[in-house]
Design a protein that fits this description.
single chain; 280 residues; Rossmann fold; 2 domains; five-stranded parallel beta sheet; four-stranded parallel beta sheet; 11 helices; 11 strands; 39% helix
């Protein structure tokens, strides 16, 4: 725990990094409106290691952790998987994850295909062992699952074919070795030709041709970060990293129709998912 300001009229400093990030000004503007008693500034190396830094990308988070491991950090716009890969020690750390929780994504798949009994998960070799807890949770909801390892991008289609033969739908994850700009087209085209539903890992994948996904807007992520920052300013401690509580649903109606899927409206899907939501 870090000491908070002793005087009620004193102002603490909260830093944002990097200053050249495309969302820097949006983060600074929204948080300035949300937070009183703090000055929001661009971060520069070598500053006070007791002051909170909001990081806006994975590279900046990695650099700060490497050079100032005791620096309090709140990460934005970074997925849970990326954070797990670079932060084995969560001391002095919090985050609003940028990716949706996978159990919610799986429930979305079940709402679109109520008869679904199996779900396929693609994984890079480095992340293949990360899904044990998820698979247990899916089993509890009536979904059997299997992880299919993609050793390299040139082996994507062969292993994707195995996954699509197994699963009633494909559950996209934030594994960037699998889901990226180079793989999005062949992955979605192959799934479409085999008439298999893809729950995309992000809204961008829905725009590219996945049937559906949940997502949280940048604005909502920033506002939820404001709650964590206020707690830091008042108590000198960071709450645990978490997924955003606010979310929306995106559906690619054109792809759904072409696959003869009767998909409820985005609003109806959101209403049902929100009702089912169980906070971890």
């Amino acid at each position: 725990m870090y000491p908070v300001a002793a005087l009620p009229d004193s102002q603490q400093t909260v830093h944002i990094a990097p200053v050249d990030h495309p969302r820097f000004q949006q983060v600074q503007r929204l948080l300035s409106d949300e937070i009183s008693g703090a000055v929001l500034r661009g971060w520069s190396p070598g500053g006070d290691t007791g002051e909170l830094v909001i990081t806006l990308d994975k590279a900046t988070l990695s650099e700060i952790r490497a050079n100032a491991p005791e620096q309090p950090v709140l990460a934005l716009f970074t997925s849970s998987g990326a954070i797990d890969s670079i932060l084995p020690n969560r001391k002095h750390f919090s985050a609003i994850y940028s990716d949706p929780p996978l159990p919610r994504q799986a429930r979305l798949g079940q709402l679109i295909i109520p008869r679904a009994g199996t779900v396929a998960i693609l994984a890079s070799p480095e992340q293949a062992g990360d899904y044990s807890e998820l698979r247990s949770r899916l089993r509890a909801t009536g979904l059997e699952s299997r992880v299919f390892v993609i050793p390299s991008q040139d082996q994507l289609i062969r292993n994707l074919a195995r996954a699509l033969s197994y699963g009633d739908f494909l559950l996209g994850t934030p594994d960037r070795a699998i889901y990226n700009r180079e793989t999005v087209k062949p992955l979605l085209l192959t799934s479409y030709r085999r008439n298999r539903l893809v729950i995309g890992p992000s809204r961008a994948f829905v725009d590219a041709g996945a049937v559906a996904s949940t997502y949280t807007s940048a604005r909502a992520q920033i506002l939820e970060a404001g709650e964590l920052i206020r707690h830091w300013l008042e108590h000198g401690e960071l709450r645990d990293a978490r997924y955003p509580e606010a979310f929306s649903v995106a559906v690619n109606d054109q792809v759904a129709r072409s696959m003869d899927l009767l998909v409820p409206s985005e609003e109806e899907l959101h209403r049902i998912l929100e009702r089912q939501e169980v906070k971890p």
